[in-house]
Design brief:
This protein is of the alpha+beta class. It is about 25% helix and about 30% strand. A hairpin with an 8-residue loop joins strand 14 and strand 15. Helix 11 packs across helix 12. The structure holds guanosine-5',3'-tetraphosphate.
């Protein structure tokens, strides 16, 4: 293994922030960029309303600041680390896209609003991280307001998420009296001093041991007394720190701070980058692929169309799993069994969208996509072909029949649906009943229908009607033989097929599903589409 490859891997950190809308993800992202030196003055992002429908939360930052960050990943350096921060759009609702992005991350930062605690969307995203077994770091935000106490928050993580937390630091005061944090590793106290409004600049920080002259001058006797008591309590009653448990996602290192005022941002970033794992390998059909392999490999985890409406471009985002990517190299596209030149890759630096010369494991490259990529595609320097198995396709929970208001615009509608399904925003199904031509769209979050209507109109000029269907579960059929005609519509279920021609059944509810299983013991259902392999035999509708 080349020492350069080894060095590049060990200094990389690729992560995503998971949170409920309004917890402060955009604010924290901006502050990480400030501390990473990628921007010089953080400004409060005003265009927040626009982001409800935006494909990336960072569009709001971009509009406000005039820098190009509309992308799926931001890369910045902090000290010696090359940091890749992946975007997980945090709309009121969410799409599969968000889940999939987590397949490209090696760790997650769970951001919670200290006043609101663990909220619904955080729980959903947490579960996906848990499934992958990646380390989860917790940042309790908005300590500059009165909220739940640190102990209450730790308790909530355990009760709601079943995860123990280990406070890496401990806040001194809260609300307007939030003064600083005590670092349990170094046993130093950080006392903060705001510089500029709303944390536009890095915060002033005085760092001294708890029992020092300096601290006695900075904090009041009662603040020091309270802190000593808290720490004693934690040391006696809290968990022991175990980096092994952190790395398997059993124990979450917890931090307290305020993204808005920057209080606690640097202590968090320092400790997080030190503890978070470097890029890990990924499972594949040929076994686990380690990042240190000399051959370049990667998988597409996200496709985004129309990032720049003026250019109608489409970008496939590829996470590098192993080896070294060099500009212009040729890689094998496993699904198409074709060699392609990776000619126009872009990497997304915080300051601008730049052409890149090379990339290493953990990095994400944006490939110009003339329509040849699909989510889950594997690219590799050819030695032997294999497929990565890391991008799950989720079972949608909301369904609707989609029609074009203007029959003359059906073509535009179909093109739009096709592209948005390749992006992973929606899944398209075809009805199997005779004469039923209108596509059925499945999504994992209700709001995706609104996003769909908005984007179809804005990007494809197709005004669509969305007729919601009363189904809540989609199950792919696993069977030796399956006759959809005999099985079809009985009022509470409907047979359709996916883009690959695989049959699946939409059920009204859990009861309808159990009923079908009892009546048809020869069938089995699964919530995820079976991986389509070149040699697999598909038993579809006759
Ligand atoms: P999101 O991306 O997770 O949706 O959250 P975002 O950063 O947009 O923040 C949501 C709101 O919370 C914003 O207020 C933001 O200023 C505020 N906020 C973020 N971090 C902190 C913090 O540490 N302390 C406090 N007190 N507030 C914080 P807004 O009223 O919607 O916008 P604005 O008028 O402040 O720009």
């Amino acid at each position: 293994m080349s020492s350069e490859l080894e060095r590049e891997i060990s200094r990389r950190r690729t992560f995503a922030i998971i949170s409920h809308p309004d917890a402060g993800k955009t604010t924290l992202t901006e502050k990480l960029l400030l501390y990473g030196g990628a921007i010089h003055l953080a400004g409060s992002v005003k265009a927040r309303r626009a982001k409800r429908y935006a494909t990336s939360d960072w569009m709001a930052i971009e509009k406000e600041r005039g820098i190009s960050v509309t992308s799926s990943v931001l890369q910045f350096t902090y000290r010696d680390h090359a940091v890749n921060l992946l975007d997980t759009p945090g709309h009121q609702d969410f799409s599969e896209d968000t889940y999939r992005t987590l397949s490209a991350a090696d760790s997650a930062v769970m951001l919670i609003d200290a006043a609101k605690g663990v909220e619904p969307q955080t729980i959903k995203l947490f579960k996906v991280c848990k499934l992958r077994g990646i380390p989860i770091f917790t940042f309790a935000n908005k300590l500059d307001r009165y909220g739940r106490t640190p102990l209450e928050l730790m308790d909530e993580l355990e009760k709601v998420l079943g995860m123990r937390a280990y406070p890496m630091n401990w806040p001194i005061g809260s609300g307007p009296e939030f003064r600083g944090v005590y670092d349990r590793r170094t046993k130093n106290v950080h006392v903060f001093q705001a510089v500029g409004r709303h944390g536009a600049e890095e915060v002033g920080e005085q760092i001294h041991p708890l029992d020092s002259e300096e601290m006695r001058a900075l904090l009041t006797e009662s603040e020091l007394e309270k802190l000593r008591e808290d720490i004693e309590l934690l040391d006696i009653g809290g968990d022991d720190f175990s980096i092994d448990k952190v790395l398997t996602g059993e124990l979450s290192p917890m931090f307290f701070g305020s993204a808005m005022t920057n209080f606690g941002v640097r202590p968090f970033l320092d400790a997080f980058l030190e503890m978070a794992p470097p890029p890990s390998g990924r499972p594949s059909s040929a076994g686990f692929i380690e990042p240190v392999g000399e051959k370049f490999t990667g998988f597409v985890f996200k496709i985004q169309a129309n990032m720049d409406p003026a250019h109608r471009d489409r970008i496939a985002f590829l996470r590098v799993v192993s080896g070294h990517y060099v500009k212009g190299m040729t890689a094998h596209h496993v699904r198409l069994d074709k060699d392609i030149r990776l000619a126009k890759p872009t990497q997304f630096m915080a300051s601008e969208r730049t052409g890149i010369e090379d990339a290493w494991p953990g990095d994400v490259i944006g490939l110009f996509d003339p329509g040849i990529f699909r989510i889950g595609d594997t690219l590799l320097e050819k030695t032997r072909a294999f497929d990565f198995e890391c991008v799950p396709r989720f079972s949608p929970e909301f369904f609707a029949v989609v029609r074009s208001k203007d029959p003359m615009k059906r073509k535009q509608m179909e093109k739009g649906l096709e592209q948005l399904s390749e992006e992973g925003t929606i899944q398209i199904f075809q009805q199997l009943q005779m004469g039923m031509k209108d596509p059925i769209v499945g999504v994992v979050g209700q709001l995706q229908f609104e996003v769909l209507q908005y984007r179809m109109d804005a990007e494809y000029g197709a005004d669509i009607i969305v007729d919601k269907l009363p189904f809540g579960h989609a199950r792919w059929v696993v069977a030796q033989k399956f006759d959809p005609k005999a099985f079809d519509w009985e009022g509470n279920r409907m047979t359709v097929q996916d883009r690959d021609g695989l049959p699946l059944v939409l059920f009204r509810d859990e009861w309808a599903m159990q009923h079908a299983l009892q009546k048809h013991p020869e069938l089995a259902f699964q919530a995820h589409a079976p991986q389509l392999k070149a040699n697999s035999v598909i038993i579809g509708p006759s």
